[in-house]
Amino acid sequence: MSTPLLESRLPIVAAPMAGGPTTPALAAAVARAGAFPVLPAGYLTPERLAEDIAQARELGSPFGVNLFVPGPVGDVAAQVAAYAAAIQPEADRYDLRLDPAPVSDDDHWPAKLALLLQDPVPVVSLTFGLPPAEDVAALQWVGTRVLATVTTPDEARAAADLGVDGLVVQGPDAGGHSGTHDPARTPEPARTVEVLTAVRAAVELPLVAAGGVDGPAAVAELLAAGAEAVVVGTLLLRTDEAGTSATHRAALADNGFDETLLTCAFTGRPARALLNRFADTWTGTAPVAYPAVHHLTRGLRKAAGAAGDADVLHLWAGTGYRQAPEGSAAEVVAWLAKDLP
Questions:
Q1: How far apart are alpha carbons 48 and 52 in whole angstroms?
Q2: Which protein family is named in the record (predicted)?
């Protein structure tokens, strides 16, 4: 089976898990297994992204790059300062002093866009919103197919009007950040196949489905519902090639963590994680203020990870996390594809 939009042998996509889990080694492993790897650009410097792209090119097979689209930043100073004061006792455990002044950035959008125009890749996917139309057109001009992440039919229509080549339809069961274009909106519970069906009725674009994929049956269901390919992320977190921290890996297999939730507590934007003490305590307090909250808590989360403190670390996980196996990424891809024609 082939996927025309992505040109991979199998209709399976390895999610761009920013912050460490998706490594060049993971991308290489899934590519060799016939799936389509997507490199995360989020949080990387343009120089580091260029290095990762160079390594991916050595595979000799198609791959993609995912970009965080910067959004408008309002006046969040008072909210971030209040949140900083509230969670300071968490930081005191690690002798850290939280800076209440909000930090904002565009994740090096202009430089990363310039890199991808100078050194084009087969596919660029967009997360967190939609960029200016001229940026999409510029990527397409150099031969790149552009996919926008959407979570509702209205977002899908807006992306279609922008002229993108396809959509990544993300259901709310996905692990990590929600791709919602409005971070103040917490996605309502829904199965990914339901979101996919609604988007398919709204637009005529190739669709890739993401969220809650917990095994071969989920892959088959989403393909049957009209997806050209299916994204897998959480199921790769414990594989040999993933850069997932030891603390995160252990938590995914720990029976003490038996629930996930969507929370802004770690970054100021809705993201699905294992329910730990930090998320349980601060989800109702955290402001919707990305990337200010991300920068506020980054040092704390780094210290917690180094100390093996799973009660404070952001433990991104989709609802299918219980099925995440150890072993090679190639074995996960083969398992997911086992019932495909």
A1: 6
A2: Belongs to the nitronate monooxygenase family. NMO class I subfamily.
Extract the tokens encoding 234: 């959480």
What's the token pair of residue 269?
Answer: 């934007």
- What domains appear along the chain, each with residue ranges and CATH number? 1-70+106-243+324-341 (3.20.20.70), 73-104+258-314 (no CATH)
Looking only at the bridges linking them, the beta strands covering 207-210 and 229-232 are parallel
> Cβ neighbours of residue 92 under 8 Å, at least 6 residues apart?
none
The continuous run of DSSP H or E covering 124 comes out as: strand 123-127
Tokens of 313: 């670390």
Say how many CA atoms lie within 13 Å of 196 toward its Cβ: 27
Query: Can you read off the two tokens belonging to residue 284?
Result: 């109702």
Is the model's pLDDT at 1 over the cut of 80? no
The neighbour count for residue 288, using CB atoms within 10 Å, is 18
- For residues 287 and 329, give the distance between their C-alpha atoms in angstroms, rounded to a whole number: 36
